[in-house]
Amino acid sequence: MTSASPGNTRTPSLSHRFPRDFLWGAATAAYQVEGAAAEGGRTPSIWDTFSHTPGKVAAGHTGDTAADHYHRYRDDVRLMRDLGIGAYRFSISWPRVQPTGRGPAVQQGLDFYRRLTDTLLDAGIEPVATLYHWDLPQELEDAGGWPERATADRFADYAALLTDTLGDRIGLWTTLNEPWCSAFLGYGSGVHAPGRTEPAATLRAAHHLNLAHGKAVGVLRERLPATARISITLNLHQVNARTDSAADRDAARRIDAVGNRVFTGPLLDGAYPEDLLADTGQLLDWERLVHDGDLTEISRPIDVLGVNYYAPTIVSRPDSGTGDSGDDGHGSGAHSPWTGAEDIAFHPAAGKRTAMGWSIDPDGLHTLLTGLARSHPRLPLMVTENGAAFDDRPDAEGRVHDPDRIAYLHDHLAAVHRAIADGADVRGYFLWSLMDNFEWAYGYAKRFGAVYVDYATQTRTPKSSAHWYAEVIARGGLGRG
Ligand code: IFM
Fold it and tell me: Based on the number of CB atoms within 10 Å of its own CB, is 455 exposed (0-12), middle (13-18) or buried (19 or more)?
């Protein structure tokens, strides 16, 4: 997952058919869309606490109402059906199902996800459930959160609670979404909930997230039908050294270690990489952290690896200038999320950027997917998130034209197609996001949706990109084919 600096993006010729059984999806996450924060027995998660803390989220936005998906899910499913979307990747809110993170499930919470799932199935849309997309019950954070080993056990118990109600109707399960963000943004830079800035706790959180995944895989395998597929989604960084110098290549290695291999190492290869242990050994005692048997548990086989990709990561050696004011694309807090590699410099790629300020490099997605196919040839892959925020606004007729998003999606889908042609076993693609939603520390200002949400009225308006995506799905690929 490291390579030389990206070149220009390339728009390949327009006739790319995808495999017949390719899954065409759209994704959301509970706290970003559901709202109904205090309904049905739900209690606060770390994101409720964080967003209600002044200064943590832009404009003081919270997920209290979000896109009101909790009440409008039927309309949203109808919208997806009309667009021809084949799979919906949503997340289950832990505090809606098990408010304190311990003990029995709340029936109303389970019922919501059962209704959502049944509505999807009735509409011919495959439900794809993520167990954890960052909304840890606040009570578990009060007990120490992810840096505490016990949180991994709580997660396994929570996973078990879901299987009785949903196990017979959901075929594809994801344990965690982007554990890098949970650990490194939540406990490192503090730009995400719970907002802690503790380097050792960051690495402890990463290990316990890995362990939580492994324990949940064990529980799910035991309790789900044999046909169920189990996955984890990682936001793997496609790390590029700015130059081919030894110092820049070493910077890329260090970011790859703490951005990618801290997860892929134990999950896919059964060990933490030696260089990561050496780079971070002064921060904590890994031998005490990793108990006997942990790595066996963490590396339980999965059926699919979910890959989220948005932008490349370009780095150079320490003291080589920050290029882009040190912003690594995750918000510029006072603390670096790159635990043990805080001195590395980050740079934008040449060319256009999205409203997040993220560089656009579809080739990075191709490199990432083909690299994984080479390193783990028998592991099916799925692009579980890809998309872009732009400053969308309705025109006088109320239509929302988003040509930049169409170009972004087109070029990234073409990159996926190329990766498949080059041997990567990519089974599906989920656009992030179905609709505009709460973009974490950026609040509602950043719009990633293919569907525009007017938050004052909760009216949904499919943007041009939604209609374009519907055509791609109907055609089974890009262009006329
Ligand atoms: O909105 C997020 C999502 O929750 C996780 N992946 C990245 C998206 C865009 O920042």
Answer: middle
- Residue 324 included in any domain: no
Q: Are 139 and 101 in contact (CB under 8 A)?
A: yes
Instruction: Return the residue whose CA atom lies nearest to atom 9 of ligand 1.
Output: 439
Query: pLDDT per residue over 80-139, tens digit each?
Result: 999 999 999 999 999 999 999 999 999 999 999 999 999 999 999 999 999 999 999 999
Please tell me the distance between residue 133's alpha carbon and the centre of ligand 1 in angstroms: 9
Which of helix, strand or coil describes residue 145? coil
Indicate the SS3 state at residue 104. coil
CA–CA gap between residue 390 and residue 224 (Å, rounded): 40
* Alpha carbon distance 303, 321 (integer Å): 42
Q: Which amino acid is at 263?
A: F
- 245 is a domain residue: no
Largest CA distance in the chain: 63
Amino acid at residue number 144: G
Ligand 1 centroid, distance to 310 Cα (angstroms): 9
Task: With a cut of 50, say whether residue 287 has pLDDT above it.
Answer: yes
- Using most ligand atoms within 8 A of CB, pick from 437, 440, 446 the residue to mutate for ligand 1: 440
Residue 8 pLDDT grade (very low, low, confident, very high; cuts 50, 70, 90): very low
Q: Report yes or no on whether pTM surpasses 0.85.
A: yes
Measured CA to CA, the distance from residue 50 to residue 135 in angstroms comes to: 11
Residue from 31, 61, 178, 453 to probe ligand 1 pocket by mutation (most atoms less than 8 Å from CB):
178
Domain count, the chain: 1
Structure token digits, residue 99: 């408010």
Domain ranges, residue 46: 6-237+264-312+356-475
Tell me the catalytic residues: 178, 385
Which CATH number covers residue 45?
Answer: 3.20.20.80
Asked if residue 94 is part of any domain, the answer here is: yes
> Which secondary-structure segment (H or E) carries 415?
helix 403-421
Residue 58, domain member (yes or no): yes
Tell me how far the alpha carbon of residue 244 lies from the centroid of ligand 1, in angstroms: 31
- CA separation for the pair 56, 153 (Å, rounded): 29
Q: Summarize pLDDT for 203-230 with one digit per residue, the tens.
A: 999 999 999 999 999 999 999 999 999 9
The predicted-structure confidence for 423-444, as pLDDT tens digits, reads as follows 999 999 999 999 999 999 999 9
Q: Is the beta carbon of 404 within 6 A of some atom in ligand 1?
A: no
